[in-house]
């Protein structure tokens, strides 16, 4: 009969085995990222920031990433759309600034499962096109069962160099990603597990291009996207007042896979 | 700021809202199912049955399902492959027989997330072909990133009628599906949540065909399937000694979505 | 060395072999079809009807089909969207009425190739969702690389019976599908082959539901759909003045695969 | 009514318009290519080389390509597997050496249609994984409806430099790709169009890695791949006697899109 080992960590299904927990586990991947930040209405955005956090700026950051050469996927690849807001956490023990993850769409299921269950990143599925590139134009489309809900466009204006690149590198080097890990009770309302998790992540930026970016959210009906429409429509309801930053980066992500911790 | 409501149930992301917990929630869907059960080696199969359970028979049941008209997906559809073994649970409080879920592959992410987090069904992703039908032959192929790992074949021999149909109907009417819900600790080995969950499910069989079935597992390397190879290879290592049952059913599944409970 | 056989018919690649030409070849498949016809502006629609044809009515017919149990695909399946207009052909030899095929989208490549090269049906690729069904509502979405360009909705009002069903059955029993087979010259403008092809097709309707239907075309930019935008935008430019017919049918298609002929 | 313009070139559907024929049309794209050549049995390979050609060496070349930044697809991308053999054409007018295209699999339909109809390249559909990269290992899997039929593996041994790189660059700079454009008669055996087409193609190699390569063909049944099984099984029947070359290249393809011509 199967019995889990004390010093192992597991994901469902457990009974086929897990891996020895190693706090030093490093995962690496290549990254091409297109990041667009925009100012929105503070009151509206605060509706989606949980109590205990302070919204540092009325700003939404949307980031497309194509990850390749992902070592834990034996060199496989996937795309994601990360949506976050800058926050300060005022806990009983912990006080820190970070990026609160509103939602992440990914086009492969395996990283969705690990991200949700191990670190509370609210990942869900969408089809995400690889970047279409007609230099200096870059574009991607995000959809669910054929229904477009987000398009991202970027026009590169030039290579970032010198001090600007240094600043950008240090900005991307470590990001305090924060997720809300929530596992519901079985057969009852409320949670069996409800924790905020800090997962420091970072990218070693190798090159970057500045430019102008734009994005468009399209509302969907429940018939078009029965399981995510309210998420998309909440984001679509936040006005894009002005684009604060648009940047395309190439680099390498080096993650301490076991480096997350619950914050209180 | 967002605050969860006491009588609601949520899935990540929480802060865009959830639904009022309603113990009477019913979900319905149409089902076309091809079920093949086979006898295997008891010793080998017991490696994957957790302590606390007794293996009632050295038997593996593999079931393809195509669900359509799924109400919580606004009429959408998906396919799954369910793999289980018949067990008896000897708990401190609960004593019951059921089908222990070894693994479930599904070709859509949304039901994977709910199944894992709400009821501990160990669902993971695969590409699953709709049934190819050249009457009386039926076949499907299951693969991961282009790597075939399971094929199922069925040749119908005739409609099930009379008492045989009645027996089959009552057999499918209620199944004690059991999952192991396991959520790992953050930044440490072991679990924050480790529970066995009983989720009674059933199908109202409307018609059924008996026949001969066969299946073939194909081992994969980590390069071919980095995240599931050990699951597939564990199942492939179980010899198919003889096929015990092969049946194709059409019907309707009516599930008490909130009817699961933790067993102890 | 390879030499084609005189009494064979081939598709590229030729050198791996073809099949003996058999004028009696029958192909069969199951069909679920949702057909919506609408009146539009005659002048605009005539822009897309070639000289030699007369537009019989300013009407566009859009038909979703899900084909299953396709015998030449060994029981496989695919979806299509057929767009046609009612015409009369005034040739030197042939005078006949039929449905001129404006374009067909299919979500599998194999039937696209045969349809284009064997019978001049202008098939191209799109992602086409299986019907989402929340009775009495039916819907599908058609997209290209994540960009929605057509949605079809239907609300069933009741079963078609009696004389109405008989009329509908005979209407679907044989349709004079007409395509324009056009193969360009190599290294020069113009065609090496330019023919109108008549391909009588039909469906044995088994049951039908009448109802109300609607559809919506969405224009796409070249960046969203570089190879089809002008087709979609041409169709989107035709106003939907009124929906003439909306019907959902179940049945079986029996096609004389070699029954097409060039009309002159 | 629609009438084609004399100096235009069209693809089906014709009536929505084509493009002015421009003999100087250049199309460009980025390319990552993994090429593996192997010696096989001359007698067996000659079965698939049409009369009029001489097989120059009993060698099969299999090449994976990932194309990105494809200008005619507005910066989109796709993958292909090209299979060819080295031949000499002995025509009435033309005498030349080239690569006879046995088959090409591509994972997008639009280039399949153009390739077949404009230049006789026998393109068909398959799912082709992007390269999985765990340096120095590279791998891809090719499948049809979940059934694996080709795997390619490469282990890089080092950068190609100096004269070796120059030789490789000139070898890739221009390739006499030859296809057999064949359009069947309608309603009769034989062809309406049967021509050999020369389409000079080339890649500007920017960097290259030599290494060891291997590939494995897997036979499929008609049930697994109803429309291509005989092609795959023909190729699988050719023994891989020894791998002659394995190289991974990065570069840019610059094609004279209208530079093909019929050879006689």
Summary tags:
4 helices; homotetramer; mainly beta; Acetoacetate decarboxylase (chains A, B, C, D); ADC_dom_sf (chains A, B, C, D); two-stranded antiparallel sheet; Acetoacetate_decarboxylase (chains A, B, C, D)
Kindly report the average pLDDT value of chain A.
97
The CATH superfamily of chain A bears the name Acetoacetate decarboxylase-like
Examine the coordinates and then state which fold CATH places here, giving the name of the CATH topology of chain A: Acetoacetate decarboxylase-like
CATH architecture of chain A: Beta Barrel
Principal-axes shape call of chain A: globular
User: What oligomeric assembly is this protein in?
Assistant: homotetramer
Number of helices of chain A: 4
Show the largest interface.
A-B, 79 and 79 residues
* Estimated helix fraction of chain A: 10-25%
**Domain module tally of chain A:** 1
CATH class of chain A: Mainly Beta
How many strands in all of chain A?
17
Structural class given helices, strands, pairing of chain A? mainly beta
* Beta-strand proportion of chain A: over 45%
Structure description:
4 copies of one chain form a homotetramer. With 264 residues, chain A is mostly beta strands. Chain A has 4 helices and 17 strands. Chain A has a single domain, classed as Beta Barrel (Acetoacetate decarboxylase-like), CATH 2.40.400.10. In chain A, the strands form 2 sheets. The first copy, chain A, has a 15-stranded mixed beta sheet that branches. Chains in contact: A-B, A-C, A-D, B-C, B-D, C-D.
